[in-house]
From TrEMBL:
Active site residues according to the UniProt entry: E318 (proton acceptor), H319 (proton acceptor)
Protein name as annotated: Histidinol dehydrogenase
Entry's cofactor comment: Binds 1 zinc ion per subunit.
Record: residues binding NAD(+): Y120, Q182, N205
Binding locations of Zn(2+): Q250, H253, D352, H411
Pathway of action: Amino-acid biosynthesis; L-histidine biosynthesis; L-histidine from 5-phospho-alpha-D-ribose 1-diphosphate: step 9/9
Keyword terms of this UniProt record: Amino-acid biosynthesis, Histidine biosynthesis, Metal-binding, NAD, Oxidoreductase, Zinc
Length: 426
């Protein structure tokens, strides 16, 4: 398989499925939620989740009950992860800037947090307390005063206890047991119970992704997340069991997930393939992982490590693992990746749950121009221009010349009026 052919194989994954039917359904749900508010959200929750709700909000007593259902080991791990993730994101904080100059001008940039953010936490095949942490913590660090969380319930209207405990540990006080496109609509348009937000973050299924895409403009969104991806660049020093295990850690997410190993070592490629077969036998989610590996998995043998890096940069994977003899030396050559995991002990799940960097990453090749979720996603910036009289008298003719070049005579006149009046005063 040639390098570019391998890249095209992965990049065309999203082109193979046309979501016209799902998009039409998501748009219909959004329209109904916009028109009917809570009634539509309740009806769709019963239709899609099987839960008959009399109140959208997660009951207050559910949180205390959840603490009785989680293990001490989970609680210890959760609290340690929260500390790591918060410490990492604290380092991303920005401050406003002011730039005075010799002409008496004051230019600057004012940074403020968004006022109200909606966090979508997926449910369905699995529960994701990690998604709670990765979306809520950077918003808190940014200083967002109102964070509202939504997550789909089970058929009894209940939420996974691990998710509930995570919500409580982070101090979120506004959380609703709704999911799907109807939850996106509630956050974007508001209902009798839920006030609209300024931005929606968090991953979901195809209906959630299409609904987020549709409401963009009404509200901001983080990204349109596609199926998960991992690409492992490995040489002869790599352990095939480690490579296979990390490939499967992404494959178990979704039948559309892509797990790829790129190596210049043909012998390693064979050993990784064998390890995949052996480890698949042990996975409870084997059916999902097997479909992913069969349809979108690949082991690519390249002529050299340079060619492996070239292929990776073209694919721009969500997760990139470097399992080579001198892995750190490759980092400077990686141009496109959502997150880079360096060395055989930097397994992708370490980043998913615990290390600190955010696990909400660009997918489907968008790491060419997009970044991981972070504190910057929860702030807005205002430019500040405080121009002095002396500076306007000195530079006003430049502004007039540029405005007239664009044919905007009223722009030019706004400056000319001031220049003439101020010079008369002098």
């Amino acid at each position: 398989m040639k390098v570019m052919q391998a890249a095209d194989f992965v990049l065309k994954r999203d082109e193979e499925d046309v979501y016209a039917e799902q998009r039409e359904a998501a748009l219909a749900i959004l329209a109904e939620v916009k028109a009917s508010g809570d009634a539509a959200v309740i009806a769709y929750t019963e239709q899609f989740d099987g839960a008959a709700l009399d109140d959208l909000r997660i009951p207050a007593d559910a949180y205390e009950a959840a603490y009785e259902q989680v293990t001490p080991e989970f609680l210890d791990a959760l609290r340690a992860a929260i500390l790591n993730i918060r410490r990492y994101h604290e380092a991303q904080k920005r401050t406003s800037l002011l730039l005075p100059d010799a002409d008496g001008n004051l230019l600057g940039q004012i940074i403020r947090p968004l006022q109200r953010v909606g966090v979508y936490v997926p449910g369905g095949r699995a529960a994701y307390p990690s998604s709670v942490m990765m979306n809520v913590i950077p918003a808190q660090v940014a200083g967002v005063p109102e964070i509202v969380l939504v997550t789909p319930p089970d058929r009894e209207g209940k939420i996974d206890p691990n998710v509930l405990v995570t919500i409580r540990e982070l101090g979120i006080t506004e959380a609703y047991r709704i999911g799907g496109a109807q939850a996106v609509g509630a956050l974007a348009y508001g209902t009798e119970t839920i006030r609209p937000v300024d931005k929606i973050t968090g991953p979901g299924n195809i209906y959630v992704a299409l609904a987020k895409q549709a409401v963009f403009g009404q509200v901001a969104i983080d990204m349109i997340a596609g199926p998960s991806e991992v690409l492992v660049i490995a040489d002869e020093s790599a352990d095939p069991d480690y490579v296979a295990a990390d490939m499967l850690s992404q494959a178990e997410h979704d039948p559309l997930a892509a797990a790829i190993c790129v190596t210049p070592c043909a012998d390693l490629a064979v050993r990784v393939a064998n390890a995949l077969v052996e480890q698949l036998e042990q996975l409870p989610r084997r059916e999902i992982a097997e479909a992913s590996i069969r349809n979108y998995g690949a082991i690519v043998v390249t002529k050299s490590l340079d060619e492996a890096v070239e292929l990776s940069n073209r694919i721009a994977p969500e997760h990139l693992e470097l399992m080579t003899e001198d892995a750190l030396s490759l980092v400077g050559r990686i141009e496109n990746a959502g997150a880079i995991f360096v060395g055989k002990y930097s397994s992708e799940p370490v980043g998913d749950y615990f290390a600190g960097p955010n696990h909400t990453l660009p997918t489907s090749g968008t790491a060419r121009f997009s970044s991981p979720l972070g504190v910057d996603d929860f702030i807005k910036k205002s430019s500040l221009i405080c121009y002095s009289k002396d500076a306007l008298l000195k530079n006003g003719h430049h502004v007039i010349a540029l405005a007239e070049a664009e044919g905007l005579t009223a722009h030019a006149n706004a400056i000319r009026v001031r220049l003439e009046k101020e010079r008369e005063v002098r």
